[in-house]
Design a protein that fits this description.
The chain contains 13 helices and 11 strands. The chain has 358 residues and is of the alpha/beta class. It has 2 domains: 174 residues, Rossmann fold, CATH 3.40.50; 180 residues, Up-down Bundle (Dehydroquinate synthase-like, alpha domain). The strands form 4 sheets. The protein has a 4-stranded parallel β-sheet, sandwiched between helices. Helix 6 packs across helix 8, helix 6 packs parallel to helix 10 and helix 12 runs antiparallel to helix 13. The longest helix is centred in the middle third of the chain and has 21 residues. It binds nicotinamide-adenine-dinucleotide and zinc ion (ZN). The site of zinc ion has 4 residues, from helix 10.
Amino acid sequence: MKTIRVRLGTRSYDILIASGLLKELGRLLSNYGNFTKILIVTDKDVEKLYGPIVAETLAPYKPKVIALESASGGEGQKNLATVESLYHHLLGHGMDRRGLIVALGGGVVGDVAGYAAATFMRGVPYVQVPTTLVAQVDSSIGGKTAVNLPEGKNLVGCFYQPRAVFIDPDTLRTLPAGEVTEGMAEVIKYGVIRDPSLFRFLEEHLTGVLRLEPWHTERVITSCCKIKAWVVSKDEREETGLRSILNYGHTFGHALEALGGYKGYRHGQAVAMGMLLATRIAIKMGLAGDDLLGRQRDLLLRVGAPVDCKAEEVKQAFELLYRDKKVVGGRLRFVLPLRIGKVVLKEVSSELLTQEVL
Ligand SMILES: NC(=O)c1ccc[n+]([C@@H]2O[C@H](COP(=O)([O-])OP(=O)(O)OC[C@H]3O[C@@H](n4cnc5c(N)ncnc54)[C@H](O)[C@@H]3O)[C@@H](O)[C@H]2O)c1
Ligand SMILES: [Zn+2]
């Protein structure tokens, strides 16, 4: 079992990573508090797959299970109506601050359950038990909770840290292939922003990683969680700028997602193209060498991510970015790579971006 500490003073917590951990959850939880009751928030697909194992290990707590409609095909359940229905379940189950919410599932479940936990009775404890690769390397760590509004994604939320994060990489074995690709784009991102040895490991062992062999997945997830834990410990609320390195590939990626009305490219696909575009900008600015592009492109291709964006799409995405009110004087800040393992935040002028496209 690997343990990583997210150091946040009184809000510090552990991330535990081990194959087969799920069936030990009840025993492990007892190290993190004397919880009087437990409410499990999950979705219907995850409940079918892992509900019985979790119900068995948590049996002494007589948990109640709330299964949201499965998130597949969108984020349908990530809204305030779901949060309100969770409040009613929490009340019905007699939840108070001595109880615990267990978020079992992907990022949608984690974000909604986390927000409900943050706001119900001004905050009740919760733990994350992420079951997608995206959730295991990203969304379950760092305490960002949120729901969507019709006007946009993640518009309502707050920072609220979990008591612990329990990661069982074996759960990834039931994921559809597309969900693995989604997570792998973020995994590759971690290598580029902070960890050359992770990047090399991926280059050398990608077959084993994609086969989800336990030794490989544990190694990769642990590296990603260490980086996220470190960044969050240093800049919990995005105040010093460090946390923005996690946005490598995301500025342009978000624009691509928005262009397609969130029905075109998926997040990981858009981030893959965003990373390559940021690299091309860095090369154009003389900050990085050509090989940086090739290594990322090869790896992204091997995980099944798209790497070639149409010139027209790039142009429209730039227009969208520069129309954004945050852009002052035609300059936009991008996270740009210098080499594998090192990125910087730099202003990029709209002229340079236009040249890049043409
Ligand atoms: N809070 C943060 O810091 C943060 C970071 C990144 C992403 N997010 C959010 O996370 C969400 C995306 O999360 P996601 O990619 O995990 O998607 P998701 O939660 O929609 O899950 C994807 C699909 O996989 C299914 N699934 C989950 N675990 C499974 C398993 N083990 N086997 C088979 N199927 C399984 C789910 O039912 C769902 O259909 C977005 O809403 C995004 O905004 C939040
Ligand atoms: Zn992302």
